[in-house]
């Protein structure tokens, strides 16, 4: 190791601080809405299940958070064969 | 009515149990009645750190299940007569603690003691949540290291959401206790410094405990460092932190590296 390198070598603490600040800002944002997506998913599933039988896998809920606007995307597939109204099935 | 203080951290191995023992003993030495409650069911260690491991007969779970009286389970310290320990049980049943049971025991302790320190298990599961559930104040033990700071942040979130106080719309008083602080490494930029930790956690500081061989020695001997070596730098930092916990307005001095020429030459570490 030459002498210049010795002087140039900076501590790793500033990197640690920066990484933590970025990570925690992200984690705190998510924490304020504890699993909003999964709550929505459950409730939407319950509403649909009242009328049509569908598999859990056919419901996709995702949320995209933007600076000024967030979008909620709900994708429900109802396969024809199982889309029998419950009243008839029962 | 006494104050209930949870000592918590999220991460394991940062010094919760050591700090519970050291702070509790420091407060008890001023004449206050203090109970230390070990919540780490299945992995109790506060008894060992307090040097009371051979005196445990009944424990927290026995009291909750009604097979022992609270007065039978409390172990009086042999050095400080106002200091008591309520050990955790070694049962492997993690559902041994119920919220009602814990609440009852805490209320009874609160009516007798000036301070009740709850030593939380690591993690954010049931045990850790029960330890903080009835607390008025929290000491968040943090090492100046990324994973510990992240977990502390998580625990602060839980303290603000899952405690009785928080649910009643009140604020639980939170304090950060930085342990294992190495002044030399912080000065060289190898370790997060105090300002970094406080800025990230935005929680007031209770104290800074310097890394010290004497803390390990105290554990080996089964005595809180504040009792066995009260003049040691870590013990003094704990004693000051205990005073701040009691409301004394004491400035925090950031430990600095005290190295002589010979120490530098030999690469010795400051104790």
Automatic annotation (TrEMBL), chain A:
Lineage: Bacteria, Pseudomonadati, Pseudomonadota, Alphaproteobacteria, Hyphomicrobiales
Family statement drawn from the similarity comment of this UniProt entry: Belongs to the MinE family.
Keywords of the record: Cell cycle, Cell division
Protein name in UniProt: Cell division topological specificity factor
Molecular-function GO terms, alphabetical: identical protein binding
One Pfam family this sequence matches: MinE
Function: Prevents the cell division inhibition by proteins MinC and MinD at internal division sites while permitting inhibition at polar sites. This ensures cell division at the proper site by restricting the formation of a division septum at the midpoint of the long axis of the cell.
Domain of life (superkingdom): Bacteria
Biological-process GO terms, alphabetical: cell division; regulation of division septum assembly
Oxidoreductase listed as a keyword: no
Automatic annotation (TrEMBL), chain B:
Keyword Transferase listed: no
Chain sites annotated for binding ATP: 11-18
Family: Belongs to the ParA family. MinD subfamily.
Function: ATPase required for the correct placement of the division site. Cell division inhibitors MinC and MinD act in concert to form an inhibitor capable of blocking formation of the polar Z ring septums. Rapidly oscillates between the poles of the cell to destabilize FtsZ filaments that have formed before they mature into polar Z rings.
Domain CobQ/CobB/MinD/ParA nucleotide binding: 5-225
Gene3D superfamilies associated with the record: P-loop containing nucleotide triphosphate hydrolases (3.40.50.300)
Name of the protein in its database record: Septum site-determining protein MinD
Domain of life: Bacteria
Alphabetized GO MF terms: ATP binding; ATP hydrolysis activity
GO cellular component, as recorded: cytoplasmic side of plasma membrane; cytosol
Subunit architecture: Interacts with MinC and FtsZ.
Record's keyword terms, sorted: ATP-binding, Cell cycle, Cell division, Nucleotide-binding, Septation
Example GO BP: division septum assembly
InterPro entries named in the record: CobQ/CobB/MinD/ParA_Nub-bd_dom, MinD, MinD_FleN, P-loop_NTPase, ParA/MinD_ATPase
Pfam families xref list: CbiA
